[in-house]
Design a protein that fits this description.
The structure holds two protein chains of two kinds. Chain A is mostly helical. Helix content of chain A is 74%, strand content 0%. Chain A contains eight helices and no strands. Chain A has helices at 3-33, 36-52, 63-78, 94-101, 106-117, 120-131, 136-143, 147-167. Chain B is α+β, with helices and mostly antiparallel strands. Chain B is built from seven helices and eight strands. Chain B has helices at residues 3-12, 20-25, 27-47, 79-98, 108-118, 132-138, 221-231, and strands at residues 144-146, 153-161, 164-173, 176-183, 192-195, 199-206, 209-216, 232-234. Chain B has a six-stranded antiparallel sheet, sandwiched between helices. In chain B, strands 1-8 form a two-stranded antiparallel sheet. Mean pLDDT of chain B is 80; it is low at 66-76 and 96-103. The chains are: A mainly alpha, B alpha+beta. At the A-B interface, helix 1, helix 2, helix 3, helix 5 and helix 6 of A face helix 1 and helix 3 of B.
């Protein structure tokens, strides 16, 4: 196979994966960092890194967790020096508020705000389970936790959301 | 299963299907599960953020001459044949591995790289250190003593390389995670470089064993080497 046809094949493979998983990458980034502009930056960096290391992905069936792991890593890199553990829901930046403002109704906006306010430790496994469809054992592997710890976090996350929604 | 256990499991996963016998006789728990399912539906809907249009970054040219194209995946049309073939492959693989006939890597450096490839979860960027207990499990006293000092150790796992026990540690370097493999029974004659895609490293001879240190290409591993070697005492 010639060099140019290899390049073309590589690019087609990349484009296909990005087309399928871009939405998941963005939403995962957005829920990790809770900021529209930062999420876009994180995804841009993740797309670039995925392109550079595409040849390390041996099986396209494993592309989703591979891409999400890259997003997770890029998000961590972004916040290496500037941790953003909690968000004050009454004092959001324009870019943070932009994510909430997209909700089509008040109940959904309240729920988004409640998820926004969850600690990283609770929000991330919930996003991986509810939005990305991962099992608790897969989440445990991705987050480097024991399955029991993931179950506890998910249990607490839902109870916090339930309490928040009841007090709205 | 009692009410508390059932509700904990349901809150962790509203689609939880275990404990059916408990749910059958407990209307309150059935109601609780319905409530959790409804809450979950709202969470799922709220998480569906609008996604901006994809802006593709400028992608640099990649040298593809050394890249071998992946073979196309063939699909098995007959699930029974697939199951039989998979069983045979698994049995042969287990038999080869347990008989130590299986030798897939020509060099220790290749095996180190392959091992890292198999544990991608180890390379998380995080600031959460592993506990002393976990570190002690990964580095048993019969193999080595590792003084964690001020290093941020974020991964510690007992592993096998060449069939020998190898503590696998990850510390956070300036440019991301740095892998450290303590190999008390792998003697090397001289320092051996490791060259992987986007990563580099070295296998250092240390007494009757060796230590592999691998990190990002931009990581200054030389500065880490001394402190890592000084942190380790073989006990084998």
């Amino acid at each position: 196979m010639t060099s140019s046809s290899k390049e073309g094949e590589r690019r087609r493979r990349y484009d296909k994966l990005v087309a399928v998983f871009y939405q998941d990458m963005y939403r995962y980034a957005a829920w990790l960092c809770r900021d529209k502009a930062i999420a876009e930056d994180v995804v841009q960096e993740a797309l670039l890194r995925a392109w550079k290391s595409l040849d390390a992905l041996r099986d396209d069936d494993a592309a989703k967790p591979w891409l999400l792991t890259i997003v997770r890593r890029e998000n961590a890199r972004y916040f290496e020096k500037r941790r953003l553990e909690t968000v004050d829901i009454d004092n959001l930046s324009a870019s943070q508020a932009a994510l909430l403002a997209e909700a089509p109704n008040e109940e959904l906006e309240d729920m988004r705000a409640a998820i926004f306010e969850l600690d990283d430790d609770y929000r991330e496994p919930l996003v991986l389970q509810v939005l990305m469809g991962y099992s608790t054992s897969e989440i445990a592997e991705m987050m480097g936790l024991k399955q029991g710890a993931v179950l506890t976090r998910l249990h607490r996350a839902r109870h916090k959301l339930k309490d928040s929604m009841e007090t709205q | 299963m009692n009410c508390e256990e059932y509700r904990e499991a349901t809150a962790a996963n509203p689609a939880f299907e275990g404990g059916a016998s408990h749910a059958a006789v407990c209307s309150e728990c059935r109601a609780y599960q319905r409530e959790m399912l409804a809450l979950n539906a709202k969470i799922a809907k709220a998480m569906q953020l609008d996604v901006p249009e994809l802006k593709m970054p400028e992608l640099p040219a990649i040298e593809t001459n050394n890249v071998t194209a992946l073979p196309a995946r063939s699909r098995w049309r007959n699930p029974l044949l697939f199951a039989v073939a998979a069983t045979v492959v698994l049995a042969v693989s287990i038999s080869l591995r347990t008989s130590e006939v299986f030798q897939s890597y020509d060099t220790l450096a290749e095996e180190v790289l392959a091992h890292m490839d198999h544990e991608p979860a180890a390379l998380r960027v995080t600031d959460k250190p592993v506990s002393d207990k976990r570190l002690a499990r990964a580095v048993p006293a019969k193999l080595a003593i590792f003084d964690r000092g001020t290093s941020l150790i974020t991964y510690a796992q007992p592993c096998k390389i060449n069939g020998k026990d190898v503590p696998h540690l990850v510390i956070q370097g300036e440019h991301g995670p740095v892998t450290i493999l303590l190999m008390p029974e792998e003697k090397v004659a001289e320092a051996t470089p490791i060259d992987g895609k986007n990563i580099k490293g070295i296998i250092l001879p240390v007494g009757d064993g060796s230590i592999a240190i691998v990190g990002d290409r931009e990581e200054q591993l030389e500065t880490l080497q001394k402190s890592v070697v000084n942190s380790v005492t073989w006990t084998t």
